[in-house]
Amino acid sequence: MTPSTDSTAFGTRTTDRLTGLVDEIRDVVGRGLPPDITAYLVGERLGPHLGTADLLTPQQREGDPEHYRQHLLHAEPGGGFSVVALVWLPGQRTSVHDHVSWCVTGVHEGEERERRYRLVPATTNGGRARLVATEEVVNPRGAVCGFAPPGDIHRVWNGCADTAISLHVYGADISRLGTSVRRVYDVPADR
User: Fold this and answer.
1) CATH number at residue 97
2) DSSP 49
3) Binding residues
4) SS3 113
5) Which CDD domains match (predicted)?
6) What pTM was estimated for this model as a whole?
7) Is 190 among the domain residues?
8) How many domains does the chain have?
């Protein structure tokens, strides 16, 4: 499923809390540390803001009945990072995919489910590549996780009966790229 994208939130009114979070992320990214360490430190900054009533505007909390919705909240000049709010109505999901850069996610409202995969390459005897599920995680409100490619293949969905909202911080300019996805995997999965 492809998200609907709302970039109108970008450049419009943001909350003071979101502005503060962007400043904290800018400080971490500006250190020029390796991607995995950057993701870890960004996650530490994101966590305290999750679940607060004053982080997002009402417009930034709106979903789409057809697809999960992506609200671009901030794209750092120079492309150092982007902050996106994803709004998931019940049952909405991503395809199996990986990312162009490090990523940190935090559940702001509701709960997200995630299935992580490992790609098993095709064998030399004419076999076909396949995905092996390695872990299934339920991320409740306040949960933060971060990762850096390679090894970041996953699928995410809203498995609860209510709207879920998550914040995603990517080490790339999503306003320019349009997506954080590097590759969608259309290979057999073991579950």
Assistant:
1) 2.60.120.10
2) G
3) 97, 99, 154
4) strand
5) cupin_CDO
6) 0.85
7) no
8) 1
